[in-house]
Every structure is written in C-alpha cells, then in structure tokens.
# Entry
Amino acid sequence: MTQVILGQFLNGIIVGTLYGIIALGVTLTFGITGIVNFALGQFMMIGAYAAWHLTDITHLPYPIAVALAVVIAGLAGLLSDRALFQFTRNNLVNGLLVSIGLISVIESGAMLLYTATPKNMDFVLSGAWVFGDITLPRMKVATFGVLVVVIALTWAALANTWLGRATRAYAQNPEAAALMGVNTQALQVGVSVYSCALAGLGGAVYASLYSLEPSMGALFILKGVEAAILAGVGNLAGALVGGVILGVTESIGSLFLPTAFRDAYGLIFLVAILLFRPNGLFGGQK
Amino acid sequence: MHYIARIAATAAFCVASVASLRAQEVVKLGQIEAQTGPNTIYGWMGSQGVPIAVDEINKAGGFKVGDKTYKLELISLDTRGDPKEATIELKRLLEQDKARFVFGPFLSNVFVTVLPYAKQFDGKFLLLGGATRMHDFVGQPGHDFVIRTWNWDAGPSGFGERMVDYLIKTASPKKVAMLFQNDQGGKVLGEIYEPLFKAKGIETVTEYFEPGTKDFTPVLAKLAAFKADYLFPGYSDAPLYDIVRQATEGNFIRKFFLVRGSLGPGMKNKDGIEDYIVYVPKYFEDAEKISPKVKGFVEAYKAFYKREFPYDQAPLCSSSCYDHVYMLVAAMQRAGTVQDVGKIRTALLSFTYSGVWTIKFDQRGEQIFNFDIVHLKKGGELQITRVEP
# Structure
C-alpha cells in the first residue's frame, strides 16, 4: 500500500505541474494586465491540437511540433490581445466577460476543424519505469521535467533580467514603472502573449499524455485558477507549488475517498488554506 | 366564351397557386443533441446523420402523405450536454416552432431534466431519443411521447445480456471492475450491470469518476487492488481513450469489456491491451463491403460533408439518426397524417425498417436492432460476431 501511495504522490506531482503552468499564466496575466483570462484553457487547447496535428498529421518530430505549437498559441494570444484584451486592461469584469466569450469562439472553431471525436496522439515516448509497485510512464516524467525547467527559467528571468524587473515593477506600481521608462504598453502585450504561449506549451505536452477534445481547456483553467489562488495570485514560484499541491491532493484523495468527488478534494484543501491564509499560501511574497 | 376562358384561366391559376402552397408544406423536425461540449460524442453523430436524410428526402421532392406533398424542415439545436440549455431549446421547439417530432436526447441527464416539461405535451409530440434513462418511462401511462431509439441492455433481447454471455463464453471471468462517469448515464449502467453480473456469478466492484477527468491513474491503482479479470469502463470515448491508455501503460489492467464507447481506444492501444470486447452497433469497415445501404450511407456522408467518414463515431448513428428520419416519414405515410402523433406512434411501432440497420420497436416503444460484438486482441486481430436480437 505504501508503494501505491508513493506512486500516486509522484503522479500527483507530475499532473500538478500541468496545473502549475496554467497557474503561472493566470498569475502573470492578472498581475500585469489586471485580467483573469479564463480563455487560457483554450490557448492550452490550441497548443494541444497544434502539437497533435503537426505530429500525427504533418509527421513533424515531436519537439519541433511542440515549439511550433507554442508559437501558434502565442500568435493566437497576440491576436486576441490586439483584437480584444487591449480594450479591457485593468477592467476585471470586462476582461472576464471577453475571455468567457472567447472560450466559446475558440471551442467552436476547434469543433469545426477537428470535430468532437477525441484525438489521441501516437506514443511519443512509450513505456514506463517500474520500481516495485510504482510505475512511472516515461512521457509523464519527461513532461514534468520540461514544465519544471520552463517554470524555473521564467522565475529566474523575472528575478534576474531587466525585463523581469520591469515586469515586477509594473505589477507593484504601474505609474512608477512608466515614469522609470518601462514601455508599459509593450510589456502588457508581451506578458499576455507569453502567458498564452505558456498555456500552449502546457497543451503541447498534455497532448502526448491525454486525449484531446475541444472542451478540454475548461478543466485546466479551473485548476490553474485554483492553483494560483492557493499559492497567492502574483506569486510565480508559488504557482508551481500550488499546482503540485492540488495534483497531489487529488491523487491521494482519490485513492482513499470516492473518485467521483476528486475535484472536490482540491477545492476543500483550497478553502481550508484560505480560511487561515486569505492571501494564499505564499501571499504577500511578491 | 372569351369571358368564360378568362374565368377558367384565373381559377386555374388560383388552383395552381394553392397547389404550389400545399406543395411547400413542411413538417418540422426538431433535434436536441450535444453537438459541442465534453459529452458531444453521443449527440454528434445523430446531428450529422439527420441532416443527410432530410436533405435526401427534400431533394427527392419531399414525401407524400395522402394527396399532399411535404418537405422536412430540420431545426437542430446544440444542447452542449447542458440540461438547462436543452429545456430551453425543447420549449422553443414545442411552443415557438410547433415541432411535433423531436430527435434526442442521447444523454440521460438531459432527458431526466427535460422530462417534467415534456410531459405537459404528452400526446402532442414524439421525443425520439437514445438516452438510457428513457427506458424507465417508455410505454408508461402519460409518457406516450417517449420513443427510445436504442437497444435496452438487460432482458432476453438485451444487448448487454448478450455481451455478458459472450464474455463468459470466451473468457470466463470471475471478477469485473466497473469504472463509470458520475452522472445519470454512468449510474444507470451501474444499476443495470451490477445485478446482471451478479446473476451470472461474477464478482464486481464499481467506481465513479468526475466528468472531465483526464488522469485516471489513482482510480486505476485502486481498482488494480481488486485484481479484476476485466475492466468495464464507460461510457464515452473521451474518457475511454485515457482510461485504456493509462490502464495499459501503468500496468494496472489489460483486458477490457465495453457496452458504450467505440473500438477506437482499443485500436489505439492495440499493442498494450490483451483483450478488448466492445459492443459496436455496426462495424462499418466491414459492413460497407457487404451492404449496399451501408455503402450508400458512407458515400452520402462523404458527399454531404465533403470529408472523411467518421468510422469510429458512425455506429452511434443507430440512435435518432439517418434511418429514423426515413422511418418517421414511413410512419407518417402509413398513418396517413403528419399531425396526429398518436396514429404516427402506432404506425412507427408496427413495422420493421430495413435501412443502414434493421430496426423495429417493441410494443412499449423501445428500439430493437441488429448489432455487432467486436473482439479485439493484442496486436490488432479482430473477430466480429453479428447479433440479431
């Protein structure tokens, strides 16, 4: 039993990184543009379908397909920002409404292009590592590695580069950042696009693990928002930790309690944390 | 004489105009299915098949009932699998569009929600849907409007009963683990199959998962502890692809038994599975080679949508789909009316239709049709068993 629990603990960590990458996008977008972009799940779906299409239909090597999927999701993010979100900056309600509308548009587009039939990418990295009763699929481990590296690099860039410092400065005080020469307009567009590209990356690696359907984004944006709130919106490293906590809670909870309420376990944990730490686990640490 | 000729010409023109108006009379056909959303799989094929039949009938000049010629007008609405949306749409179809025939829903949770509203229109319309939960209401007093367009699982003609018999005959399992979606569709499967397996001496354990679940590893690990001979997962392809992949990749279980869902997940993981026994209303890849009507439908689909035929989803056209439009038209012609739904219902239940499927209804109003059991083995070897209930 110990090995089963350990196996599910590791599985929860791996799944949690997927929540983490969306949470990172949520927290970045909210911090810089003042919008909770609920359509990030759909940008994840764009990345997923793009990776699947480029790999299984166009027969490109998977790493190239992932890179192109990230670019496609980023471009879609740029388009949505120029066409829609630039008009809703720092207006939470308008931004929310636009992002909810965008969900239907993108989802319908995917339905039109690829129908509702689930798409299942051919195995990229088949097989699993077996340690006693613990089985870890190789692709899941590789996915975990890629996502952790990307999140760590994002965090490092924000901490150590001029652009990163400008981003953090803008999040703390937009007027002061503008007075110090930060091009706030370009920064907002850049962060918006980067968040969508991150979601696209999440989708591209997701495609190698799970089946794709046009509505797949809804679940992950909820988890991403939950993870961001759990960590404390605005905390970048916390986004990953929040995602992992959520993933582990769901995995271990499902093992001992009815699986039918899996989503509730993460939410109960979130509520419990917010009762004691209303700003999230790492709230206050910017 | 000239005066008489003018009157005659005017009269002839009026008669021709009335005849023309009559010729344009339409029978409205409503449809409420999930065309988008997470449970799209079940409504999608119906919403694909019905327009083809409507188009074919209209292009052929419509259909005659008595001395009038009618065309069909399809109002197909997307429920997105949302019961509230479906209720609003049904209200629109019945009150605004005055439709007397509504195809769908395939989803039990949608049916259960629209039922109280639909009951108010008993005797005024027919609801032809595939939802499993419809079985409880077919033929019940005050529910004449309910026509179920899919085989029932249990009983002597039940396809599930036949499937379980096949499983016992070919594999003699002692334990079966069931994993269903936590909704009406999943619950009803549990209610049907737990006693069915028990009656045949097979031990079961049942777990339910949250709709939209993608990572099944924890529940599969839990079920693996039961050491089941077969995993019986359900009920739509969206979770099945993930369940089959994760069950085989994680080495939890490699033998599957399905009564809902397609062959697709098994084929995709054909090297990881050991056994994959699935109920397929029609194995089109095979059937199109031997049946001209099936071949015709495949060709019609390709021509109408200008895309490849969806072999994995097409078996679900066995419910409220292409054949059923023709069947309904035939029932109207037999009843001699397009308005008296009572007579049309009686006519519909009185004959066997031979189209893509051979379809008839029992006395209660539940469909009985021929189906295939597809047995997929490791590596992709297929064995098809045709069943005529």
User: Anything to note?
Assistant: Chain A touches chain B through 37 residues (CB under 8 Å). The domain at 2-276 of chain A is CATH 1.10.3470 (ABC transporter involved in vitamin B12 uptake, BtuC). The two ends of chain A are 40 Å apart (CA to CA).
